[in-house]
């Protein structure tokens, strides 16, 4: 019983919850020990309940961690639901998150208790923490009770307008849950989806497209305005969102663009004619109109191409199927390397990728021929992987590489995997059928395989030889004789039935062997399988029509045995054959045509790939994998014969709001003046544009005065330099002393000089109060308002940032340096009354140093 209890606990039985954070309580009674498998332990999880009901947050948090651990292991923790729900209103964020995780798991099972917490969830929807808001919406949408549908609808609408993209993403997930609960809300949900589709966040894009696919996949009109945005955001969306968006855009493109696969379509890049083109070919080229791809079609292909380098195999597969279904034929080969790269992944990924490659290789062999060695079978591959690689190698076979592929097949036939060896024999038969140059070689090789020890290989060889002989029966009578001699050694029913069919079909080519084979079959008729019995009856009927003297009695004997067989199919076939070939008074009109019915020439079978008909499904889908239409599969529509209107995807550009300019600056700005001269305007400046496209400037009088001062100072400076150069060397010592004295005086009076220089160009001193700065700015011709500049200048006076102004010879430049806002804790803004344009910066925040030129 201990072993039974152990296995039961491993399977998640009632005692399984004891494994985490609990101590087992030994049972004293022998009855409980003997029947512990069926007894109910009422003290189970009591310690977790006590921890959840304690007053300490740490104990509750530890209990929730253990409960979530139980859920992660697949254990049943539903009986703790009442104790957990009590903590849903906890103020501890970590505890509340874990409670929400638990409620999402069990809210659907415990609906009555979950309804008691609806008010708590509604309050949590307005919590300041975005994680709490999203978790509350997730739990609320998990309570699948029709009564709260209006509450869920209201919560989804509010969450769709939330400032947090994470909450909006959760709202997109909740749309699908609400739609499955109440499909009548479809119209309201479509409005929410339309609003979320306009969202520019990459976090929301994948989720809302998934909701679109679930709720209203036929509403293509919702995608028109968002098509280009989705294409541009595709690279930055999360991986699983990329898969959903790519699949949706594939369906959208089929309904909005024309086919690039038209037989007479000529691309603009391939219009150059060859030198030796005939006149007729040139006329045909001139008459055919070149195919011009829609710009949005090209945008989609260009946006998805970088995703071929994605680490997620699903994304690469989605891009591959998009190119397969949408790209021009000469561009499809772009995806080949990426698909071959995926073959290095896990076997589950290999299986899906190889299935899609097998479908693609049927229509376009040239894509994968350079990578044929990547499909060679390895000894470590699973059987289903080996068979898929074998399928692809068979599809890639042609006259150039058939010798290499047949050498590989010779090795595969010797494999210990019987299923794989039998599949290899079928592949050899397909190669012999498709490539006539190697038909005889393959047939001789298959005949040698008839002496193989493996019965499965022998049986499959017989079946394949039978199909090959139907193409050239007269030339291979020796092979039929050889197979008849090996008949006694072959035990597989399908192989025995194939040999009997061959002997009966071509009995005229082996007239001596066929009656003897029928004699042997008459002896063992009752012990054969049903499929073999049917072929024995057919062989007897054919020999009766072609050689009735030797086989008349044998045929009647076999027909009598079949008349009383246990299988009703054999009984029916026997009665039909008797009435058809044995003449009597009751024979119908069909007796005259017995030879034409039974010995009519049969067409040779065509050996085709099992993946030939899978191209009707979209690549990468479950329906393609199963080769059957799965639930929820959306078929790709045909290409449009006439391209729809492209303007439906045009988005109206909303004019940007005008930049705020203080009223004082508006008064001082004149339309005819420019902040820079013509030469400087050509060089560019950070403040050289306004609403009318002209630079702002101060009054003409102030600018002319400052320019005249600069010109006079520059002229005086140049004159002094010339005089110094013309002076004698005897005065050099005195000039050096004067310069040293000037430097000392500059260092001592740096503060006063700085204030004077700043006053000249209109910059207030750091130590000045707001009143002084406003008055000085007004004296210089600027028009700062006291209300706009006072508050900023008070902050500047408190922080006392380092600022200086420096003059050069030709132009005066003002460097305004501000201390970082991260240090002083408040935003800084430049205070410069050099020109009226600088006043625009007074109302904005400028956290970086500003360099202004005049």
Report on the architecture of this protein.
Helix content is 55%, strand content 2%. The chain has 41 helices and five strands. A three-stranded antiparallel sheet has the order 3-4-5, with no helix packed on it. It has a two-stranded parallel ribbon with strand order 1-2. Strand 1, helix 16 (279-287) and strand 2 (290-291) form a beta-alpha-beta unit. The model is unreliable at 1-42, 264-277, 657-661, 663-732 and 748-854 (pLDDT under 50). Belongs to the adaptor complexes large subunit family. Residues 1-10 have a biased composition (Polar residues). It is found in: Endomembrane system. Keywords: Membrane, Protein transport, Transport.
Rounded mean pLDDT score: 75
End-to-end Cα distance: 95 Å
Task: Provide the helix percentage.
Answer: 55-70%
**Strands side by side in the biggest sheet:** 3-4-5
- Count of separate DSSP helical elements: 41
Structural class comes to mainly alpha
**Percentage beta strand:** under 5%
What is the overall silhouette? elongated
Number of strands: 5
Residue windows where pLDDT falls under 50 for at least 5 positions: 1-42, 264-277, 657-661, 663-732, 748-854
| Oligomer kind | single chain
Set out the fold topology.
Layout: H1 2-10, H2 30-34, H3 46-52, H4 57-72, H5 81-85, H6 93-106, H7 111-115, H8 118-124, H9 130-142, H10 149-160, H11 165-181, H12 186-197, H13 202-215, H14 227-233, H15 239-256, E1 266-267, H16 279-287, E2 290-291, H17 295-304, H18 313-326, H19 336-341, H20 347-363, H21 383-396, H22 402-413, H23 418-434, H24 439-448, H25 455-469, H26 477-485, H27 493-505, H28 513-523, H29 530-546, H30 548-563, H31 568-581, H32 594-598, H33 622-626, H34 663-668, H35 678-683, H36 700-726, H37 732-748, H38 750-761, H39 770-779, H40 786-799, E3 806-807, E4 812-816, H41 821-824, E5 850-853
Parallel strand pairs: 1-2
Antiparallel strand pairs: 3-4, 4-5
């Amino acid at each position: 019983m201990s072993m039974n209890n152990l296995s039961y606990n491993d399977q998640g039985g009632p005692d399984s919850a004891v494994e985490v954070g609990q101590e087992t309580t030994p049972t004293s009674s022998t009855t409980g020990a003997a029947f512990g498998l069926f007894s109910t332990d009422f003290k189970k999880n009591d310690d977790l309940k006590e921890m959840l009901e304690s007053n300490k947050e740490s104990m509750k948090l530890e209990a929730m961690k253990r409960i979530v651990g139980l859920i992660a292991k697949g254990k049943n923790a539903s009986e703790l639901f009442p104790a957990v729900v009590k903590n849903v209103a906890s103020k501890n964020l970590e505890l509340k998150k874990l409670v929400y995780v638990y409620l999402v798991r069990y809210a659907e099972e415990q609906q009555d208790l979950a309804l008691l917490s609806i008010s708590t969830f509604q309050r949590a929807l307005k919590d300041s923490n975005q994680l709490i808001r999203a978790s509350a919406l997730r739990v609320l949408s998990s309570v699948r009770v029709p009564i709260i549908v209006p509450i869920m609808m209201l919560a989804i609408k509010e969450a769709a307008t939330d400032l947090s993209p994470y909450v909006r993403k959760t709202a997109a997930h909740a749309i699908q849950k609400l739609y499955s609960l109440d499909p009548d809300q479809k119209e309201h949900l479509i409005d929410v989806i339309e609003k979320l589709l306009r969202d520019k966040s990459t976090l929301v894009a994948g989720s809302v497209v998934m909701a679109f696919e679930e709720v209203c996949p036929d509403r293509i009109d919702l995608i028109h305005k968002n098509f280009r945005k989705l294409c541009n955001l595709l690279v930055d969306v999360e991986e699983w969102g990329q898969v959903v968006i790519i699949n949706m855009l594939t369906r959208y493109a089929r309904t909005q663009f024309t086919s690039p696969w038209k037989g007479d379509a000529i691309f603009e890049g391939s219009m150059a004619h060859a030198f030796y083109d005939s006149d007729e070919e040139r006329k045909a080229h001139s008459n055919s109109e070149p195919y011009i791809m829609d710009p949005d079609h090209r945008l989609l292909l260009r946006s998805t191409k970088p995703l071929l380098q994605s680490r997620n195999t699903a994304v690469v597969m989605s891009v591959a199927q998009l190119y397969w279904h949408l790209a021009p034929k000469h561009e499809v080969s772009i995806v080949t390397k990426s698909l071959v790269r995926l073959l290095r992944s896990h076997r589950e990924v290999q299986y899906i990728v190889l299935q899609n490659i097998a479908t693609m290789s049927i229509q376009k062999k040239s894509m994968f021929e350079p990578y044929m060695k990547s499909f060679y079978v390895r000894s470590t591959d699973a059987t289903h992987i080996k068979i898929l690689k074998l399928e692809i190698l068979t599809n890639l076979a042609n006259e150039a590489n058939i010798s290499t592929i047949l050498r590989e097949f010779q090795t595969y036939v010797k494999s210990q995997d019987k299923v794989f060896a039998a599949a290899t024999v079928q592949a050899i038969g397909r190669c012999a059928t498709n490539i006539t140059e190697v038909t005889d070689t393959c047939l001789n090789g298959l005949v040698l395989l008839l002496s193989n020890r493996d019965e499965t290989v022998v049986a499959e060889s017989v079946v394949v030889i039978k199909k090959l002989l139907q193409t050239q029966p007269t030339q291979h009578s020796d092979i039929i004789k050889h197979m008849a001699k090996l008949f006694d050694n072959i035990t597989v029913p399908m192989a025995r039935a194939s040999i009997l069919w061959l002997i009966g079909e071509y009995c005229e080519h082996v007239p001596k062997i066929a009656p003897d084979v029928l004699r042997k079959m008459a002896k063992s008729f009752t012990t054969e399988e049903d499929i073999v019995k049917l072929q024995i009856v057919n062989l007897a009927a054919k020999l009766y029509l072609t050689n009735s003297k030797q086989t008349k009695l044998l045929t009647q004997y076999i027909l009598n045995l079949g008349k009383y067989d246990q299988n009703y199919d054999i009984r029916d076939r026997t009665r039909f054959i008797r009435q058809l070939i044995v003449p009597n008074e009751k024979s119908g009109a069909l007796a005259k045509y017995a030879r034409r019915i039974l010995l009519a020439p049969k067409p040779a079978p065509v050996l085709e790939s099992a993946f030939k008909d899978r191209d009707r499904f979209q690549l990468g889908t479950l329906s393609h994998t199963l080769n059957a239409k799965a639930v929820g599969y959306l078929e790709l529509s045909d290409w449009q014969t006439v391209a729809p209107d492209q303007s439906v995807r045009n988005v109206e550009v909303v004019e940007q709001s005008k930049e705020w300019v203080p009223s004082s600056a508006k008064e001082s700005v004149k339309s005819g003046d420019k902040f820079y001269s013509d030469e400087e305007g050509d060089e560019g400046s950070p403040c050289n544009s306004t609403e009318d496209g002209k630079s702002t400037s101060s009054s003409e009088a102030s600018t002319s005065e400052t320019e005249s001062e600069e010109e006079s100072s520059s002229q005086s400076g140049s004159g002094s330099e010339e005089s110094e150069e013309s002076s004698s060397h005897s005065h050099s010592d005195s000039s050096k002393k004067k310069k040293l004295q000037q430097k000392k005086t500059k260092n001592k009076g740096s503060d006063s000089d700085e204030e004077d220089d700043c006053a000249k160009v209109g910059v207030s001193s750091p130590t000045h109060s707001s009143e002084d700065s406003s008055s000085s700015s007004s004296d210089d011709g600027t028009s700062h308002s006291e209300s706009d500049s006072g508050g900023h200048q008070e902050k500047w006076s408190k922080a006392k940032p380092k600022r200086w102004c420096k003059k050069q010879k030709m132009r005066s430049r003002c460097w305004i340096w501000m201390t970082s806002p991260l240090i002083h804790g408040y935003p800084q803004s430049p205070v410069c009354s050099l020109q009226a344009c600088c006043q625009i910066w007074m109302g904005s925040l400028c956290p970086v140093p500003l360099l202004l030129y005049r």
